[in-house]
Every structure is written in structure tokens, then in C-alpha cells.
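C-alpha cells for CHAT domain-containing protein. Go.
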Amino acid sequence: MVFAAPNDALARAEGVLDADPSPLHASVAHQVIGIWQRDWGDMRIALHHLRRARDLAARAESAEREADVLAALGVALVHAGRTQQGLAALERGVERVSGHPRARVLFRRAYARWVLGHHREALEDVRRAVPVLRQADDVIWTARALTLRATVHLALGAVDRADADFTAAEALWDTTGQEHDKADAVESRGLAAFRSGDIPAALRLLDEAEERYAKLGTPTFMLSIRRCEVLMAAGLAPEALAEADAAIAVLDGIGGQSTRKAELLLAAATAARLAGDAHTAIARADMAVRLFTGQRRPWWEAHARLVLIEARVAAGRSSGRLVADTAAVAERLASFGAPAAPEASLLAGRIALGLGWRADAERHLALAARSRRSGPPLARMTGWAAQALRARAAGSGRGVLEACRRGLDVLDAHRMTLGASELRARASAQGAELAALAQEASLETGGPRRLLVWSERWRATALSAPPTRPPADPQLQSDLTAFREIAARAESARMDARPIPALEREQRRLEREIRARTLHMRGDAPGDGHRFDPGRLLDRLGDDVRLVELAVLDGRVQVLLCGQGRVRRFEAGLLAEAEVEAEHVQAGLRRLAHPGAEARLPVVEAAGRRLEELLLGPAAAQLGDGPVVVVPPARLHRVPWALLPSLRERVVSVSPSATSWLRARETEPPRRGRHVLVRGPGLATGGAEVPHLAVRYGGAVVLEHADARVPRVLEELDGAELAHIAAHGAFRADSPLFSSLRMADGPIVVHDFERLDRSPYRIILSCCDTARFASVGADELLGLVTALLPLGTAGVVACSAPVNDAAVVPLMLALHKGLGAGLSLAEALRDARAALPDDALHRATGWAFTAFGAA
């Protein structure tokens, strides 16, 4: 009963002890309390009760009872870090009985061996136990044994065998009322889905398991460890670190299992390294190594040592000793049959290459490269990365490019299984090394055109296909509606200076629910296998338009100037310096949004000149007289490009990639499309341009006041030709897909826009911060504008800085005047800037707005 209804079992056991039971019954009751405390409470209390249960079993002269308690005690001792004592207790339990009771003890010993990382011995114990349990028609213990065997298979990388055992176990669990065991089976299924490369299914199953555990009221430390692993693979390392640290704090608070603490420390160390926090990773990994060593868990210790070495390398340490240590870890992992062995060999090869040890590097990289032919996607990518490094060391540029192509193809296929745009964007980080190697090789061997191809190969790939639209999901709809209501109430309370902690907690809960349901979606776009064609781009650009793609190699900006049938390369400044200058410009624009800051104008203009030198270098003098399309790296998304002197008086637009620009250029506007004008609440000017635009566009749909509610706004925006939205924008750096525009009934967020069948052909967002993005993955952007571009929007005008609301009104009216004359968004925006008064306030307002896309 303790694994069917744990808390009820605990209460029943305490009731038995209150009734002066016989030694046999008292032994059972103490064992139940001991198991409950072992798995969900204080290990010291658990050991006390289990030892008492053992002594009472001996008094009852029941060998079967004594063997069963010894098995439970042995597992508890192993979890407490007393490995030798635990294995000795389990051995005594095996010796005390035979037949069916012995099979149950063998299962517990197999479990303990799995905890310790003794996978082959664990499989042998389960192999002996399963036939006996089946013959005895012991459904519950057979299901447990099959679940454990599947989990051990997963640790050894045998996903197909694990899947067969999980399927068989699930059929048995369906015939029982073992609710905790069932939740554990769902959790294990989540791990299996992850091992087979299905991250959305893994997240969905782990969330389902958490719901089941919550109903039973039991902590979920193993679930936290597994979810950390999946979150890290999904590119969500900071979230994994937070979850691991929170679980460690809870575990310490209840005096829980030492083994689980060590595993959580390992998860935290891995997450910290992936999140770029090398010093935290070193601290956590060092603690994990010491715990695993004390617990005599060599399989786990080897994994922790690998993470410790990775963190030290990330912190800038490199030595011959590290090469030897990493090679030793790789050898140990290989001897255990651990899937992480190629990763360790790749690291040893990398360190050796850095030291110039070519022969050692080749030996280690050759071992790692074997994994490129089979296994889950990330393991194959490890193999292709090793193969690319081997080719580079051998001086084979062609070999580098071929290995990078094959590795990125693997990642492309993996990313298209992800339905959520956030996961697709974050997954790209796993190909960053391959993309960088390919760009270096293409620059050395193929010239500017090949560099352009490889720059495009890994730029804004999350925008290459629309995100998967969620199925008709009433719960998601309900959560979005509730989120809007709570967010609106919280905003109203803030304006009235009322405390809102309860509302903020509920808003955060709803955000987690919405995000979780979105991350569960599988991708439904197989990918069209399209490869970027420079010739097609040059044909589209013609003789007048120039496209400037900025690639970054070794921290320096490489300018690829496309136009007049050719691609030329220029070297500009350092990316880090350009980022600092861009922040200075943003600060200056914020100051200029307020009257009386005119003295800052020369400072901002000087920063614009420095930005041009750093970002365009000598290419600035080669732009010609026609329109310019800028394709910047994600880390330069906040540059106000119209501020750069060579771009100030010309038609300029921005695109996440040349591929994205081509798609926008070739997007056809809807026939007889609607014009939709939306005015949200709380604007300083009241959205003063909207009534004027309503007159200009006779017959336009005007949504304001109570009509500007999210469901109606989405209905009208779907398939519109032109949308103008005057509404307060809020950018969420912590959760960019909850960046929003404020409507009458609450915020409209990126998740809402992703449900449109086709977003408007052109969109104008006239308020602050609508063109802000989060830079994630390798070179990806998440935000409102980038959510619209894959959904059918060919052009957006949006703002990357705070602006003066009153100064925006004449800019917007002039912009629409240009559109009415048949101009593109970029052309109309250029003319609208020129039509503004020539003062600091209006000039800064014009610079803050950017045209994206090609409409």
C-alpha cells in the first residue's frame, strides 16, 4: 500500500503500532514507516524504523519477513551513502530465502545496484527475478522489475529494449491500483522519450508524472533530476539549475537521501556549465565527485568528473594533466558502456588540440567520431563535431565542411520535431561549434560567397518554418484567458499602488502552465530541405539594392556586402565593442525621449559614427545609392540602424536572415485584405493617430475602448493586409514569448499571435519596446516581431527604445501617407523621418523605429 497511497499507508502503519501488535505485524508497520521516510522523508528516521522492523522479524522467527526487511534496509543504507553495509544487508536477504520471496529481494538488490551505477550486475539480478515473479503471478513486483530493467537499459543506451519493457510494465500497471508506482512508470516513460530524442513528449510525460505525485503528496527528487536533464537538452539550462538547487534545498531540509543529493549536485553542475557559470559548475561538480566517491558509485563519479573537467576548461584552464584526466574519464565511461564516453573523448581531443598535441588529439577525436553514425541526435552531433576537428587538424577544409554539414543536418531534423518556437531557437546552441568551424573553413577556402552560405546556414533557423499551432486545446485557451484577466487586475492594482503578491503568484503559475503546454507540442513541419542559394538572392537584389550580412568570426565582425551580382567581404571591428556602443546609444535615445535633453544629441550622433566604424568598416563607402537591407547577428538586435551616418538618409530595412528577407519579398499580400486599426488603453496621447488613420482608410476595422479585446483583435488581425496597433508594449527578457501589447481586457502575448492562421501582411507597432528581442541559442531571436515573420507577415515597423508618445503621432501619420502613395514600409519610414521637425526629440523618435522584412 505504501506505493499505492503513501500517506494512507503511513497512517495505517502508525495505527497498527498504537494497537499493541504482535512482533510480525509490528515488523510490517515499522517497515512501512521506514520505506515512507526512506523515499520521502528523513533517512535517520527511516533507518531507525527499518532496523526495528528487522529485529522484530527475527523475534517473530519469520525468515521471509526478515529477508524482506533486510532488502528494504539495504536499499536505505545505500541511499544514505553506506554502500558496503547496504550491499551486505541485501546479500543476507538473498541468502535467507528462496523462490518467490527471494525474487523480490533480488529486485531490491538490482535497484540498489542501479543506484550505484552497477548496471550489468543489476541486469543480472532482474534477469533472475522476472521469470520467478511471473510464474508466481505477482503482477505488482513483475511490473516493478520490468520498469527497473527498462531504466537500466536506458542508462546503457539500449532505448529499444527499454521501450519493450516499459510497454509490458504499463500493461501490468493498468490492472493494479498502485498509484505511486504508476506515476513512477509515467516518469520513466518520459525519460525513455527523452533518450529517443523526443523532447516535447518527455516534457509532457514528466509534467504528467508530477501531477500524479502531487495528488499523492510525495516529493519528487528523481523527477527533478530527470527534468533537469531534459531542460538542459532543450536549451533551458538556467531553469534546470534553478530546479536542481531548489530540490537540493528541500532534500537538505528533510534530511533526505544522500544518493539523490549527489545526483542533484551533478545536475546543477551540468546546468551551471551550460548556462555559462563555470565557477558554480566547478563548486557543484566538486561536491558531487566527493559524495559519489564516498558512496562508492564509480559510474556516477566518472560522470561528475567529466562535468568538473568541462567546467575547468570553460573557466580557462588547460594543461597536459587535464588531457590525461579527461582521457581516463573517457576510458572509464566506455568501460561502463555509458553513452557519455564520446563526449569525454571529444573534450580530451579539444584540449589536446589547444596544446598542439596533434597525435593525442587525433587518437581521442577518432574515438569520439565513432558516435556519429548511430544513437540519439546529440550523440551523433558529438561524433560529427569530433570528425570536423579531425579534418581541421589535418588541413582538410572540405572535410571540415562535410562534417559540419552532416552534423547540422542531424540537428535540423531534431529541431523540426520541436513544435515550440522557443525550443527550436534554444536547440540551435547545440550546433554553434559546428557552425563556427564551418564559417572558419569557408573563409579560408571558399571566399565571401561560401562564407555567406554558411552564415545563412545557421542564422535565425528557428524562423525557417512557422511554429506548430496548438491543437484545439480548451485548457490552453482557458489558461490564456485567465492569464489575461489576472494580468489586467495586477496592472490595475499597480496603478492604484495596491499590493499584489497573490495576483503576481497566480500570474506566474498561469505563465508556467501556458508555457508547459506549448513546450509539449511536437513539430509538424518536416523541413523542406531548402538550401540557401546566393544566386537567387543576388537576382532578387538586382543592381540597386544592397544586402549587408554581418557574420562574426573569432569575435570580429565580417561584413558580407551582396549586390550587383557579387558578394564582397570587408573586415570591421570587434563585436564586443559594438555591443557596448549599442548600449550607449540606447541610453542616449532613452534620454532624448524627454524634452530638455537636447544636449545629448551630439553624444548620440557620435556614438552612431563609432557604431558605423565597428559594424560596417570600409563597407560603408561601398553601399551605393539604393536601398540597404541589414542582416545583423542576434547580439546586435538593438542597434538603431537609421542612426548610422551612411544609412541615415536612405531606405533601410532589417531582416533576421537573407533567407527570411527573400521569403518576405516573395510573400503575396492577401486579396482585398482588411485594414485594422487597434487602440489600446492607457496611452499618453490616447493613440491620437488612430482617428486620423480611420479617416484615411475609409472602411477600416477600428478596435478601441471595449472593442479592443484580445479575442476580437486576433479575429480581425488574422489574414489582414495592414494592421496598425497603438498599444503599450512590454518586453519580457525573462520570458520573451510573454512579451505583450496591452488591450482592453489584458495583454495580448506572443503565444496568442502564434495561434493565427496568417498574421497581417504588414504590421505597424507604434509604441515603445515592440522591437526588443531576447538573443538565445546560437544566433536566434525571440520576441514579438520574430514571432510574426514566419506566420505570413512580410513587413513590420516597430520600436527598439522608449519614445516620446507625442512625437510618435506625426511620424505615424507621415508613414501612412507614404504607404498610401504606394511606398514600402522602409521607404515610407525614411520619408516620414525626413518630414519630422529637425529637433532632438523628433530625430531620436525617428531613429528608434525600424522597418523589418521586405514589404
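The mean pLDDT is 90.
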